[in-house]
Amino acid sequence: MRTVGVEEELLLVDPVTGEPKALSAAVLAHADRDDPGQDVFEKELFGQMLEFATHPRSDMADLGNEIVRCRKEAARLAGEIGCAVAALATSPLPVSPSVSVNDRYQWMAEQYGIATRDQLVCGCHVHVSVASDEEGVAVLDRLRPWLAVLAALSANSPFWQGQDTGYAGYRSRMWDRWPSAGPSEPFGTAERYHRRVRDMVATGVILDEGMVYFDARLSANYPTVEIRVADVCLRSGTAVLIAALARALVDTAARDWRAGRPAPDHNVNVLRLAAWKAARCGLEQDLLDPTTMRPRPAARVLRTLREHVGDALTRTGDTDLVDKALAELLRRGTGAREQRRMWERTGNLRDVVTECVQQSQG
Predict the structure, then answer these.
(1) Does 362 have pLDDT greater than 80?
(2) What domain range is 164 assigned to?
(3) What is the CATH number of the domain that holds 323?
(4) How far apart are CA 239 and CA 243, in angstroms?
(5) What is the pTM of this model?
(6) Taking a C-beta distance cutoff of 8 angstroms, is the pair 244, 60 a contact?
(7) Interval 281-309: pLDDT, tens
(8) Range list of β-strands (E), the chain
(9) What pLDDT is attached to residue 119?
């Protein structure tokens, strides 16, 4: 069974005002004091962010338990220095991001200017194991139409700099300002994939392979496909749903490749429109159906996704988990919908953040 690992980026906030706090270095110092050499928590581009990574897991319940443990440990460490953590993909309140002290991050700030300073966004990256680079590239070519649906499911960034953006997942609109971000054309072979990456690095516009920000890519460090389209999810259960669907999509794509079924030929222009639609609407309105690239109600698109990966979910034993989580998400709404309900009820974005701090723990 394929293993799955999750990386989540969390927002560090003042527990009273809800404003982001640039205290990641202090949190990491506390983490290293408690567990010298720990490799769970990491520095990110901005001091207001804290990242953690799970171990590779084959069982979704184990993965969910680890995500909850990591979130609670992050909250404990943050609490010791007077701040809190929130699983928010953008800050609802205004913020002036502080670039972390790091040669790589300083290079990015100088290279990209305001586009770097506007990147205080928190994502969720899912790693799914593959047998080889050839299998991985075959998977990447076949995942492309489905990634926007995962983005819609995870939408958790309706606010930006104190304003309602009108989007469910505004994080992706900011993220796509990186020159290497977004969907890719089919690669066909691993050799072509690696050649394209080398050509991109050779331009000097990006620093190295780690800055190839395709929506899905081969990991430079692990034998995995890394799916990078999701917002960090308000609730840990939604992150597990995204992970289970990601594994099922990878497994389905790999089997299609081995069976000789061709990759879909949707072009990048249409995929960008699908991604925009997912960011704008989440699950509230139509999405573009990955099989036709025509608008259909979000619930019907989710049924299409569920049918597409049905056999893979059966093989992994994740059918009940996914069905229950999808039903609950459709009933409750995305993180973006929950944030807007909080705002409608309280009329105060500070209260939205403090409520989200509590929701992030479960």
Answers:
(1) no
(2) 4-359
(3) 3.30.590.20
(4) 6
(5) 0.96
(6) yes
(7) 999 999 999 999 999 999 999 999 999 99
(8) 4-13, 41-42, 49-53, 84-86, 123-129, 159-160, 163-164, 216-218, 224-231, 286-288, 295-297
(9) 87
